[in-house]
Amino acid sequence: MRRLLDLLGPATLRDLLLVNVAVGLVGVSYGAITVGAGFEIWVPTLMSIVVFGGASQFLFTGLIAAGASPIAAVAAGALVNARHLPFGFALADTVSKRPWLGGYLMIDEVVAFALAQRDPARRRLVFFTCGAMLWTFWNVGALLGGLLGQAIPDTDAWGLDAAFPAVLLALVMPAMRQARIRNASLLGAVIALALTPFVPAGLAVLCALAALLVVRPHRAADAGTDAGTGGTA
Amino acid sequence: MISPMTLIISAVVLGAFTYGFRVAGPLLHGRMAPSPQTQEWMTSAATVLLVALCVTSAFADGKEWSDPARPIAVAVAGLAAWFRAPFLVVVLIAAVTAAVIRLVT
């Protein structure tokens, strides 16, 4: 343990702790919001262990709570986590000795931390240390949040219902600085809102993807390539 | 809401998809990476979904519109996020704003 701390160095350790505390608190909000939405206390913990991906967990339980079908919720959650596919290819060498464990721990924050390290040995060390810490903080946070959500009878009076969309907004804000993705997202939001009174909640959210047919967020489409063929790559 | 068994099965299926996406790269040793276009489309689609869920959960419960406090609170929090306030601050601003609006109205 002592040796591990020496290897990481004080600056990296401080950054690791800050990220872990933040993620732990988002875990608390996930547990509290999920239980506040009417789920039983074991649901946030089950999701956090089985899925271990914040955005998809919020999306999945949010859709189910809004009355969406389980298939729609699984599809939406899987689409959100499809962004992890390229992470696996970027970090294939880093986790080559323990691919099964490395794949399980491969969440956004771990990937960001690991990719910031140049030296391969150090990158491996940071990946598994950060992954183990985040797994612990996220799960303890979700459990504590679930207990908190149970203890507070009226979560709306505490504004917890506003915390969920705010978490999503904070997650997507970095991407909103790119005009193309912002435009597609805004159009998608309008579509989802317009359909909300008429279709089941989960379906309205999935229909937002139609925006990608109108606003093509990738450069290839602008250059005149037909996105449907995808033959250039 | 759905039955506990359906919920558990759905969670396991989502977990399996998620794990499959993450472990594919390490198991293929970095070969056969998806094309940059595909990667970019997946990133955009994920963002569009998250934003759509954000606005629908800010403005509605199922098919019913919510009270004004929630969308106002989310808008204030969004402003804070745009100006790069820390994650936690954004979430706290949303909760406190909604709670205060409900307290005074």
Automatic annotation (TrEMBL), chain A:
The chain crosses the membrane at residues 16-39, 59-80, 125-145, 157-174, 186-215. It is found in: Cell membrane. It is a multi-pass membrane protein. Keywords: Cell membrane, Membrane, Transmembrane, Transmembrane helix, Transport. The keyword Phosphoprotein does not apply. The keyword Transmembrane helix applies. Belongs to the AzlC family. PANTHER family: INNER MEMBRANE PROTEIN YGAZ. This is AzlC family ABC transporter permease.
Automatic annotation (TrEMBL), chain B:
Pfam families: AzlD (PF05437). InterPro entries: Brnchd-chn_aa_trnsp_AzlD. The lineage of its organism: Bacteria, Bacillati, Actinomycetota, Actinomycetes, Propionibacteriales. The chain crosses the membrane at residues 41-60, 72-101. Keywords: Membrane, Transmembrane, Transmembrane helix. The keyword Transmembrane applies. It comes from the Bacteria. This is Branched-chain amino acid transport protein (AzlD). It comes from Nocardioides dubius.
